Amino acid sequence: MDFFAQQARVRGSSRRLVILFVLAVIAIVAAIDAVVWFALGQHPAPGEPPASNLKLLLGSSVIVLAGIGLSSLFRIMSLSGGGKSVAESMGATVVPPDTRDPALRRLRNVIEEVAIAAGVPVPDIYLMADEPGINAFAAGYSASDAAVCVTRGCLDNLTRDELQGVIAHEFSHVLNGDMRLNIRLMGLLFGILVLAVVGRRVIWFGGGRSNRRGSGQVWMIGLALIVVGYVGYFFGRLIQAAVARSRESLADASAVQFTRQTDGIAGALKKIAILSEGSQLQAANKQEVAHMLFGEGGSFNALFATHPPLLERIRALEPGFTQADLARTAAELQRVAASPPQKPAPASTPGATSGVPGLSLPPVLTGVLAGGVAAAPAFQRAAAVQQAMPASLNDAVQQPESALTVMLALALSPAAELQPAQRRIVADAFGDDVQRAVLAQASAVAALTPIARLPLVSLAFPALRQLPEGRQQTLVRTLENLVRADGRVDINEYCLARLLRIQLSEAREPRSAPVDGVKKLPAARDSVILVCTVVAAAGCSDEAGARRAWLFAMQQAFPGEAIEWVPPPMAWQASFERALDDLDGLSPMAKELVIQALLRAVHADGQVSVEEAELLRVICASLHCPLAL
Predict the structure, then answer these.
(1) What are the tens digits of pLDDT across the range 124-138?
(2) Which of these, 568, 563, 562, lies nearest to 491 by C-alpha position?
(3) Helices marked H in 260-320 — which ranges?
(4) Residue of 170, 248, 612, 614 marked catalytic
(5) Are 372 and 102 in contact (CB under 8 A)?
(6) Is the pLDDT of residue 16 over 50?
(7) Is 170 a catalytic residue?
């Protein structure tokens, strides 16, 4: 399927629906203004000069808008606890990183693979253990504030590929900004509903006594608030459901983009349609997260359904799929269920490497383990990196303090002459105990395959996020001091420091994470040229090769334009940082063009170096886009 076209179509549809929501609020204000004018306005007799009601109507509009706005803000603030609080409100329990349950271990492996492949931090992982239906949701304002929660039904009924498709779908909700949009729509709905509550209060306190002067007018205004509030809420719910349905289509398309296959997510949808539990949730507050779920959490009227019909979602992934095909799939599932169970293959464990018994990797992935970037699908590369991770490091990054020492060890230079100065930097920032712990991790980090350095940061992120804010900031400053200890910053060092700085800052202030920009590509022309220049130079050992790769990128980004090649400056980091911040303000479609241009540069010589891969990971994180290699 053409998922890029699908993404563009759905984003446009969502924008139109949000505009419709705004127009509905304007209509509510106009309706209440009309009632206020009729009840309290000046109405001169025929022949008298017209009286101005402008101040009255302006005051009425300001009061209504302020009421909706303040009520919406209150509700949004109450929903700002982050993905963790949403998951816990549903009765979910955290999946520990050291779990030995095979099903939970498989879940963690899949989520870690999706995070590494998409270039985002590993989220908090939760399980709704008492829910037999197949469902899941992701909550959070950004990838750095995300929690992924699945039901027991997902673990019991889905294959690994199907679970991967569901998780990729949920990741896309966070990456596409759906959580931020949904929270704001929920707040706006609450603000509209408050009008009806205020109307009841107005009638009760202001118009309830018939002998009070002006009670008829007050009663009329109160009744208008009630009617307009409930009618507005009804239509607001319709629009919210339509927005949610369009974003679900986008999430399905994005899941295909991440996994590069439709069988997984389509298989999960088919099982929801076939199995008696479906995607139903038992939780009493399931309506609160209905718009976040993978499937419908309850039985809703079609007008208020937050997801497209199952058959429609399956057909979008597999055109031509029919009800008869679904019946055949159900019969096949029954046949498999009736056959004797087979002994499951042993689950892979982090720390395995090529040649270790129990681990079998496709031959194309041997390049990953040797330190390169193999020409394999992103999820296979992510699985290879994850499985090649030394067990000692995998265990270390699961706890906050030991994860901190691993991050500092990643920044240590192999040059013996720099190590005394770097040890002093660590000791000054954290003390001698941490310095000794960093040195103890140094040998394991030095033996790490280069392509696994930044994925290790993703795996460490859940633990690093638990550090106190002051310690996080000290970690970021210390990393920057370590990489500048020799007076220069190479690409690997820069990528490590930049990635952690972005992710930790967004985790501290999730609601301040950037949203989709609106700038077109020509508005950021100089920034695109500079970023492409740095990436092209990083992947080539000679200027001729770098210029050739850069020209491929320019043909993709600015076809037909004559642009002069200028090598990147020696001190490129500061201008590169400004360029990335500028590019983050681009529209999603413009960001896609930038990523495609970078990919042309990276693949110009037919191979992807570690430096190119790390730069792409950091660029995608800075632009809040999923990683693509």
Answers:
(1) 999 999 999 999 988
(2) 568
(3) 263-274, 310-317
(4) 170
(5) no
(6) yes
(7) yes
